[in-house]
Amino acid sequence: MSHHSSNPDEDGRLHKAMQEMFGEFPDGKLNPDDAGQLPFLVGVENGHVVIQYPKPIAWLGMTPDEAIGMAEVLVKPGVQVDAKDLLVVLS
User: Which of 31, 37, 52, 84 measures 20 to 30 Å from 58, CA to CA?
Assistant: First the structure.
């Protein structure tokens, strides 16, 4: 079972990253609803791998290379429960 929350970005890293890339579409717009790049944090909390986004999202699209990169980022803390937080930018 997975968990979720709507708590905000506590240390502001996601907010800062979001401001830096607002309106960026490195691979063009996927569809009319595409809002552009989205940073996220991956870390470990109480033995669970946690993905934190800077705002609510309905969907996430990425290139095949980005999907592989995201999988690699998720596997690392899954294997090393004591991993440090990682800031990830899919572009």
Answer: 84
Half-sphere exposure of 43 (CA within 13 A, CB side): 10
Q: State the pTM of this model.
A: 0.63
Query: Residue type at 79?
Result: V
How many domains does one find in the chain? 1
Give 45's strand partners: 48
> Do the beta carbons of residue 88 and residue 43 sit within 8 Å?
no
Q: How far apart are CA 38 and CA 71, in angstroms?
A: 16
Given a cut of 60, is residue 86 above it in pLDDT?
no
Q: How far apart are CA 22 and CA 17, in angstroms?
A: 9
Under a CB-based contact definition with an 8 Å cutoff, are residues 76 and 83 in contact?
Answer: yes
Q: Which domain holds residue 58?
A: 13-90
What is the per-residue pLDDT across 38-70, written as a single tens digit (0 to 9) for each? 888 887 777 777 888 888 889 988 889 988 988
Query: Distance between CA atoms of 86 and 88, rounded to whole angstroms?
Result: 6
